Amino acid sequence: MERLTASSGYKNPQPTVKPDLVGKLSRCGHSFHIYCLVAMYNNGNKDGSLQCPTCKTIYGVKTGTQPPGKMEYHLIPHSLPGHPDCKTIRIIYSIPPGVQVSPTSAVGCHCLGFRCLQVDVSFSPLKVL
Q: H/E element holding 103?
């Protein structure tokens, strides 16, 4: 990765901020011009999250673009194959029939969805839920 020796090429959104000001991401430690970080956020989903383009570390909570629906989860007292000492979380997604609308990438497509997923509890279930 090149060192940040030149000013950012992005236009100055705020005259009080210098174009050579650099910010460092707290978890991964990668550095970017402040203007570049603002441009990354403005060109993304604007969902309150930012993803480092170098290592893909996610800051904030990233949300997807699935159609409206319902998610249920249950703790099951049985283990999955290969995880004999773990309980299981069953996640069920139910998406009613309809036509997809913005912000999905499949606007206008018909959708109908039902998915069931089982994850062992050792898989950091809070990240899944």
A: none
Contacts of 105 (CB under 8 A, 6+ apart): 65
Domains of the chain: 1-63 (3.30.40.10), 70-128 (no CATH)
Q: What is the pLDDT of residues 86-97, one digit of tens each?
A: 888 888 888 777
Helical H segments across the chain, by residue range:
34-42, 125-128
Closest-CA residue to 70 (of 100, 110, 115): 115
Which pair of structure tokens corresponds to residue 41? 């956020």
> d(Cα 56, Cα 114) in Å, to the nearest integer?
29
* Sequence-distant (≥ 6) Cβ neighbours of residue 117 within 8 angstroms: 90, 91, 92, 93
